[in-house]
Amino acid sequence: MIRQACLAAALMLSCAAPAHAYDLWIGVAEPAGGVTPKGVYHATFDKVSGKPTKPRLVGEIAGAGFLATHPTLPVLYSTGGVEGEPSVVAWRIDADGQTGLARLNDQPTGDGGSCHLSVDATGQALMSAHYGGGSVAAFPLGEDGAIGPRASVVEHQGHSGVNAARQEAPHPHWIGPSPDNRFALAPDLGKDRVLIYRLDAASATLTPHGEGVTPPGGGPRHLAWRPDGRFAYVVDELPNRLSAYAWDAEAGRLELIDTQPMMSDAETAAEPPAKSSEVAMHPTGNFVYAAVRGYDRICVFAIDKESGTLTRVEREPVRGAWPRHFGVSPCGGWLVAAGRDSNTLSVFAIDQQTGSLRYTLESVSTPRPICVLIR
């Protein structure tokens, strides 16, 4: 009955789409353990059955770990190494997504490798976070989606130091636009802050505006917005917590309102250590999902509609190892978890009433996946 309900919900939510399948775009980690392919992989994903096709390499490049898509153009962006230099890369997607990717161009990041990319809502600016370099940057995008030379870079200063091994310096781990596209936010694992920038998409510039204070020693990593733009949710990597923030869109200000553990203190302290990774919102805004590597679970939380606070629903095994990333389908019917160390993509049906996950027994092999986009 649960599976039938999930499938029915997926069908209703996806019936407006002209195609029967989503695209899955997959970024992979550098080769290790005898796994040699590297680059961007592609698969399709049936909207009704949840069955994925076997992923295949469509764009070959070193270091294509994180991906982003243009909001209106058939263009994909990836991290990558070009002639040994850390870069951001633009790829044109062919009409049916089947014959591969054609590289449009690339630009050097200028400050170490990028760990996260995003595109603003107007498609005019590509933003990049540099964990190792301690900076964030923005690049203008042309009318064809090609990347222009870096227009803005901000070096983060200071650090928390609560965790001496991980917070010895600034480490921005994510950057993305606010729901109204006026600001860009960047959680910094090393500073225990979410840095807030004014975003001028037309000129691809970032201007420091303020910062949101996160729990000490949390190591904020990734952020997800509730669709109504009132609340933001940040996964705290080091203690394995999920924190909720009220967002003042006019003032561009974050206020911490709730923090919930994803694991017990004993589980967090166990060896090998567990590390929180990705966070993603259900399209309804009723549920938020966060992953823990090592413990290899997806934690499901229900969101109070008025207060934005969190209640944990369940912790579901990912049927894989080291889930650095996962994606929720636009229809809200499915979640696909990427197991880096198990070389797998595993599919879960989402219960539309409770937000809980059910493993569908669908899993496909992909070499070291660390980013999966469902589009």
Spell out the blueprint of helices and strands.
Elements (H helix, E strand, L loop, with lengths): L1 H13 L6 E8 L11 E7 L9 E4 L7 E3 L5 E8 L2 E9 L7 E8 L7 E4 L5 E6 L4 E6 L11 E4 L20 E2 L5 E6 L4 E8 L4 E9 L6 E6 L5 E6 L4 E8 L4 E9 L3 H5 L5 E7 L5 E7 L3 E7 L6 E8 L7 E4 L5 E6 L4 E7 L6 E9 L3 E6 L1
Structure commentary:
- The protein is mainly β and 375 residues long.
- It contains 2 helices and 28 strands.
- The strands form 7 sheets. The chain has a 4-stranded antiparallel beta sheet with strand order 3-2-1-28, with no helix packed on it.
- Strand 18 and strand 19 form a beta hairpin.
- The longest helix has 13 residues.
- It is globular, with a radius of gyration of 19 Å.
- The two termini are 27 Å apart.
